[in-house]
Amino acid sequence: VTATNSITTTTWELIEQFSELIGGREDIWYATNIQIADYVKAYGQLKFSAACDFVYNPTAMSIWLSVDSITTEIPECLMKEGTKNSYGQ
């Protein structure tokens, strides 16, 4: 075994151990790169009131926020056809 193969094997073993540690957990979001990019874009579209006591989510996906150690879901915009939201859209 060469030094390079030994390092590669050790690195791969660490990756396997890490994967076993984080795999199958309910508190971890397993997402693709595009899912993460879409989520970050949706997060950037949230509309907060001036006092930051209200937030409107105009997107098609739920966003999760943590404020004062309380995690809250901000649901996606659910509008019926023919209605307008508070922004007239």
Element-by-element helix/strand order: HHEEEE
Quick one: overall form? elongated
- Give the total of beta strands: 4
Biggest sheet strand order reads 1-2
Question: Percent of residues in helical segments?
Answer: 25-40%
SS strand fraction = 15-25%
The main β sheet shows up as: 2 strands, antiparallel
Please state the CA-atom Rg, rounded to the nearest Å.
21 Å
| Number of contiguous helices | 2
Low-pLDDT windows of residues: none
Q: What is the residue-mean pLDDT, rounded to a whole number?
A: 83
Distance between the termini: 65 Å
How are the elements arranged and paired?
Elements: H1 3-22, H2 33-44, E1 47-48, E2 55-56, E3 63-67, E4 70-74
Put the structure in a nutshell.
The protein has helices at 3-22, 33-44; strands spanning 47-48, 55-56, 63-67, 70-74. It has 89 residues and is of the alpha+beta class.
Give a written overview of the molecule.
The protein has about 90 residues and is α+β, with helices and mostly antiparallel strands. It is built from 2 helices and 4 strands, in the order ααββββ. It is elongated and about 55 Å long. The model has no long low-confidence stretch (mean pLDDT about 85).
